[in-house]
Amino acid sequence: MKPIYMDNAATTPLREEALEAMVNAYREHYGNSSSVHRIGQAAREALERAREEFAACVGAKPEEVVFTGGGTESDNLAIRGAAMAARERGDHIVTCAAEHHAVLHCCRALEGEGFRVTYLPVDAEGIVDLERYRDALEERTVLVSIMLANNETGALQPIEEMSRIARERGILFHCDAVQAAGKMRLDVRELGADLLAFSGHKFYGPKGVGALYIRKGVEIVPIMQGGHHENGMRPGTVNVPAIVGMARALRLATEEVEETAARLGALREELASGIMERIDGVRRNGSAERSLPNVLNLSFEGAEGEALLLALDVAGVAVSTGSACTSGSLEPSHVLMAMGIPPRIAQCSLRFSLGRYNRAEEIDYVLDVLPGIVERIREVSSVGARPVAGSRVSKDGAR
Amino acid sequence: MKPIYMDNAATTPLREEALEAMVNAYREHYGNSSSVHRIGQAAREALERAREEFAACVGAKPEEVVFTGGGTESDNLAIRGAAMAARERGDHIVTCAAEHHAVLHCCRALEGEGFRVTYLPVDAEGIVDLERYRDALEERTVLVSIMLANNETGALQPIEEMSRIARERGILFHCDAVQAAGKMRLDVRELGADLLAFSGHKFYGPKGVGALYIRKGVEIVPIMQGGHHENGMRPGTVNVPAIVGMARALRLATEEVEETAARLGALREELASGIMERIDGVRRNGSAERSLPNVLNLSFEGAEGEALLLALDVAGVAVSTGSACTSGSLEPSHVLMAMGIPPRIAQCSLRFSLGRYNRAEEIDYVLDVLPGIVERIREVSSVGARPVAGSRVSKDGAR
C-alpha cells in the first residue's frame, strides 16, 4: 500500500509542474546569473521572471523579494538583520512563546548579544492577546516577530492589527509566513508587515530555497558576507533553478488556494469529527475557525503521541507529534505548553496536516485504524509500561 | 551555433547523472529528513548515504561533513563560526589578499566586531610566501583562512605546509576549496586543514547547496539559529535532493579527475600557446604548473577585458574578466592587483575556465576569432574611445 502522507506541515512533495520547470532551468539556464555573457544573462532573466511571478503571488514589488536558502535563513535574516540595523535606536524585541524555533532561537541568540526579548503568551487557542501585545511595546522596541500561522496547530495570529500597532509606533514588524504561504490568500500590503519569511518546500516547491519580503525602504543588514548578489542582501551564487521551481509552485498554489483550502478544510473537519465520534478523551488543540484549513492538532489522553505516531506509521500513515522539534528529548511541545495545555496532555498529541494529494478514502482509512491504535496504546500505558522508546526519534527541527 | 562555454569557474552545468539522482530523490525521498515516520526516515537514509558518498571523495568521515546552502555560507560558517567560538582565546585572523569575497568580506565584517585581520600579500604567481605567513601568526591568532585554488587564476596555495605550521601553534586552519574540489584530487587529511568549504555547482552539481568539512573535535558555533539539523551546525529543513545530486556529482568528478585534468590541462595549454603565438602583448597571469589545470588568466595589453568579454560573447564564446565580482564598478581585479599587476594591465584580463564539456574544436574556434577581436578592441581603445559601456555588467559576486 502506498503510504498516506498527512505531514504536509513538515514538508510537501515537490509538484511535477515545479519539477519540470526546474529540470528545464537546470538544462537551459545553467549560467551564473551574475555573469555578464549571454548564458549568464539568460539565467538572470529566468531569475527576474521568477521574482516577478513570486512577488505577484503575495502582492509585493519584485524588488522587495530577496531569495534565500530557506525559511530558517529568511527568519534569521529578518530578525538578526533588522535588530543589527536598528542597534543604535533600541535593544528590545517582542515575539511570542509559540513561534517556530527559527524565530525563538534567533531571539535567544540576540539576548546573548545585548538585546532584551519579550516572549508573549498565547491564549487557549494559541492566539496572542492584543492588549498584552500593546503593553509589551516599549520606547526601545525595534522589532516585533509574530508568525502568520502556527506550524503545530495552524493557529492564525491577528497580523493586520498587530502590524498596524507596530507601525504607529515606528517599530518594524516581521512575520514568519512559512507555514501559511500557499495555504491561504496572502497579501503583504494587507498584512502590513515590513518583513515576511517564506519557504519553498511548504507549498510543493523545492527544499533549500526561500524568500524574504523586505518592504521598500526598510533597512536590514545581511547576515552573511560575500558577493553583491540579491541587491547586497544575500551573498552566494543565486540558485536560479530552485527559485524558478519555487515561484512556479507558489503561483499554482495561489491559483488553487480557495479551492484547495475548501476541500482540505472539509476533509479536516471530517477527520476531526470522525475521530471525536469514535474515540473518547480526545481534545482539539486550537480552533477550527482561527486556523489554517489543513492542520489538525489533537491530544489523545493517556496515549503518548510518539507511540501513536509510530503505530500509525506501521499502519501506513505518516503524521507527526505536536512537537517534532523536541521529540528526541520527549519534551512536550512548547507551542501546546504556551497554550496552557498540561504536559501530560501535550505529550499525547498528534498533528495531522493535510495536503493537495490527500483524498477522502485516506480520511476513511485513518478513521478505520486509529481507534484500535489508540486503544492499544492506552492499554499498554495503563499497565505502567512506557510505550515505545526513542530509537527512531529525531532531535532535529522538522516543522 | 551552440555557445561555447568557457566560464566553468563561475559555474558548471548540472551533469545529467546528478540531475537524474535529484529527480529521483524529489519523487521518492520527499519527506523531511527530521521526521520520525518512514517517509522521513527514507529521506534521512538518502541523506546519510549522500554524506558517506561525499565524505569518501575527500577522505573525511561522514560525521565531519555538514551540508549548507552553498560555498559562501560554508566560508561564512567556517570563519565566523570559528572566530566566535575562539573569542575568549584570541582576536586575530590571518588570510590572504587574493581570497574570494566570501572570505574577505566575512573577515572585514569581523574587523568591525573587534577582530584584527592580517591580509597576506601574494607573489607574482599568486602564491603566499611561507616566511611572511609564519611571521604573521601571533600569540592571539585563532584562525587562518587560505584558499586551495584561486577562482580567478587557478593558483594553488601550499595548504599542506601552511596548515602544518598553524597546527603546530594550535591555530585553526580553514581552506576555501570551492574552486578546487572536483578539479584535482583532494584529501582532507593530506591537506591538514580543520575546515574546508565546498560548493556543489562548481563540479557539475546543483546550485544552492554546499558543504563544510569540520575535522572531528574542532569547535565552531553556528551562524544561524533554528532546529537542531546537521548536528546543530546548520538549522533548516535539509535539502536532501540537492545533497544527493551534489554527492553524485562529486563522486563522478572524483572518479574522472585525473583523466579530465589531463585532458583539460592539454586543451588549456593549446589555448594559451595558440593565443600567445597569434597575438602580441599577451601576459599570462599565474603559472601553468602551480595552478588548476582548467583555468587560464590572460591580460591583453591595450584591450579592456570587459570589451573583450562582450565581443567574445557576440562571437558565441562565454568567458569572464579577471574579476567578475567588481565588473560593475570597472575596478581592476583585487586578485591580479595582489599579484602586483598594474591596474591598466589587470583591467585587460580575461579568464578562460574550461570544463568537461569543452572540446578541441572549441579551442580552435577561439583561436580563430580572438585575434581579430583583440585587434579591433585595441584599435578602438587606441583612438581614445572607451570600449563599450556597462549596461550588461554585473555588480554581483560571480566567482
Could you list the spans of chain A in which at least 5 consecutive residues all have pLDDT below 50? 384-395
CATH class of the largest domain in chain A: Alpha Beta
* Termini gap of chain A: 26 Å
Q: Greatest interface and its residue counts?
A: A-B, 81 and 81 residues
Overall number of structural domains of chain A? 2
Order of helix and strand elements from N to C terminus of chain A: EHHEHEHEHEHEHEEHHEEHEEHHEH
Q: Write the CATH fold name of the largest domain in chain A.
A: Aspartate Aminotransferase, domain 2
- SSE-based structural type of chain A: alpha/beta
CATH homology-level superfamily of the largest domain in chain A: Type I PLP-dependent aspartate aminotransferase-like (Major domain)
Number of helices of chain A: 13
What does the largest sheet of chain A look like? Answer: 7 strands, mixed
How many DSSP E strands of chain A? 13
Helix content of chain A: 40-55%
Measured by DSSP, the beta-strand proportion of chain A falls in 5-15%
